[in-house]
Amino acid sequence: MGLSRTLPIFMFVLLLFSGATLAEPRIALQSPVVNLTSFQVGYYIDDSQTLGFDDVRQQSFKETSSTTTLGTNARVTWFRIPLDNQTDQELALNVHLPHAYHVRSVAFYQERDGQLVHSDILDLEDVDASGLMFRGSAVYPITLPAQSSTTLYVRSDAYSHQWFALEIFDQEHSRQALVGVANDIALLVGMMVALVFYNLLLYLATSKIENIYYSFYLISGLVWIALSYGLVASLFDAYGHELFMLNISLITMPIFLLLFMMAIFETRQHYPIEHRFLQAVLIPLCAMFVWGLFDISAALKPASSMALIMMTVTLSVSVSLLRKGHPLAKYFLVGHTLFVIFNALAVLFYKGLIEPSYLASHGTGLGIMLEALMLAFIISHRIKILEDIRASQEELKEQASTDPLTSLHNRRYFSTEAEFLLALCREQKRPMAVMIADIDHFKRVNDTWGHPVGDRVIVRIAQTLKSCCRSRDLLARFGGEEFVILLPDADLQQAALCAERIRATVATTAFQMGDGDTAHVSLSIGVALVDVEHDSIQSALDRADQALYTAKQDGRNRVAISEAAAAA
C-alpha cells in the first residue's frame, strides 16, 4: 500500500523535473527598450545538413548561450529563440549576427501560433540579394505584435568552425551597435603592418633570410586577424568563399614560424635533433597548405589539433635550445609561451570545450601579436649580437695591425698596405718615396732614465711624426726605436724636405725625463726614392736603410738621401 502511494508521487516529481529540464528558454520582453547581448537559446546540429524548417521544428533542441562555439562538427546548426512580447505595443526589433561574415549562409524563420509567418536567407556569395548584410554583421528585422509570442529560428551554415553570436536590439541600440568600430582589431592589424615595414628596413640592412620568413609570418598573421575578426568585412564589405580562402593564412603562419626558427637558431648547422623535430611538423603543415588550396574548409578541420602539436613541438625545441645555451632561446621561449597560452585558449574555444570570452575568442590574435613583438625583439637583438661580434673582430684586426705603444701601424700592416699603394702609384704613374727614422743613442735614454721614460720618448716622437706627415702617408713603427714612412705622390726632393722638417722638430723638442729633468733627443733619417715601374718596397727600404746608416756614420741628427737607382 505504501509503495503504491509513493510511486505516483515519484512519477509526478520526475515529470516535473523532466519538464523543467526540457523547457525551452524563453525571452520575455517587458519594455520597448531592448538591448539583449547575452541570453539563452536552443540549438540543434543538423548532421545531415539537409533538413528543412518543418523537419527541424520537430527536433529536440539543447540549451546554450547566445554567444557560443560548437566546434568543427556542427557545420550546419539551427538556433531557436522564443520571444514573448509582454508589452501593449508592437515592437520593431533588429536581430544581429555580428559574426555572419565568416559563414556560408544564414537563414531566418519566424513562427507564430504554429505557423511560418516569414523567412529570409542571406547567401554570403550574393549579399546584395537579401540586403541583410552591413559591415560584416547580418541584420534581420523582426516585428513582434503586442502581447504575442514569436519563435525565431536561425540556420547557420559555417565553412568550418561554428562560431555563433546573436544579439537583439531596438532601433536605437541597433544603430549604435552598427556604427561601432572594432578598435582593438584595427590596433592589432596596424601594429602588425608597422612591424612589416620595420622588418623590411632590417632586411634591407642585413639581407638575412629570417627577415623574409618573419615578414611572411607577420603578413599571414595580420591577414588572418583582419579576416577572422571581421575587419575585412567591415572595411571592404567583402564576403563569400573567395574571401574565406584567405583563411589559408592560418596554415601559412605556423609554416613561416617554423622556418623562422630554423633560420634564427641555425638548427640545420648546429642542432640536428631539434631540426628534425621542426621538419616533422613542417611537412604535414605544407601538406595541409596544398590541401587547403583545393578544399579550405576540409583542411581547416584538423587545424586546431595540428596547432596543438605544432605548439608542443616548438615549445619543446625552444626549451631544449635554452638548455643548450643559445642566447636567443630565452627570449623566444617567453614570446612563444604567451603564444601557446593564448592559442590554447582559442583552440579550446573553437572546439567548443570552454565558454566564450574575449580572451578565448581573441586568443589567436593576441597570441600572434605578442609573439610577433618578441620575434621583432629577437631579430633586433641578434643584429646587435652580430654587430658586437663584428666590432670585436674589427677591434682584434685593428690590434693585430697596430703597435700597442704608439698606436701607429706595425710592420705587418705596413707590408700589406705598402704593396697596395705601390700598385696604385704604378697604375697612375705617380712618384713615391720612403724614409726610415731611428732615435739616436736611445739605449742611453733607457740606461739613464729607465724604460718607462724611454717609452714616453717613443710615444712623443710618434706623435711628432704623425703631425709632420700627410693624411695619405703610411706611417709605421718597425720595432724598438725605428720608424718607417711611405710617401705616395712625393718625389725625392719633397721626401727630403719632409724628413728635414721631422728631424728639426724632434731636435728642438724638450723631452720631460722625470723629476723635472728635461733632455733633447735627435733622429737620424734615411730617404730613398721608390721606382714605381721596376722597384719593390723591400728594395726601396734597403736603400733607405743604407742612407740611414750613412747618416749615423756622419754624426747622427741628420738626413741622408740615397741616390742609388732601383735595380733593373
UniProtKB/TrEMBL annotation:
Cofactor(s), by name: Mg(2+)
Cellular location(s): Cell inner membrane
Enzyme Commission numbers on file: 2.7.7.65
GO terms assigned for molecular function: diguanylate cyclase activity
Gene3D superfamilies (alphabetical): 2.60.40.2380, 3.30.70.270
A Pfam family reported for this protein in Swiss-Prot or TrEMBL: 7TMR-DISM_7TM
Class in the EC hierarchy, top level: transferase
Domain GGDEF positions: 430-564
Coiled-coil regions listed: none
Catalysed reaction, written as an equation: 2 GTP = 3',3'-c-di-GMP + 2 diphosphate
Bilayer-spanning residue ranges: 185-205, 212-232, 244-265, 277-294, 306-322, 331-353, 359-380
A GO CC term attached to the entry: plasma membrane
Keyword field: Membrane, Transmembrane, Transmembrane helix
Swiss-Prot/TrEMBL GO biological process terms: cell adhesion involved in single-species biofilm formation; negative regulation of bacterial-type flagellum-dependent cell motility
PANTHER family given in the database record: DIGUANYLATE CYCLASE DGCM-RELATED (PTHR45138:SF9), REGULATORY COMPONENTS OF SENSORY TRANSDUCTION SYSTEM (PTHR45138)
Name this protein carries in UniProt: diguanylate cyclase
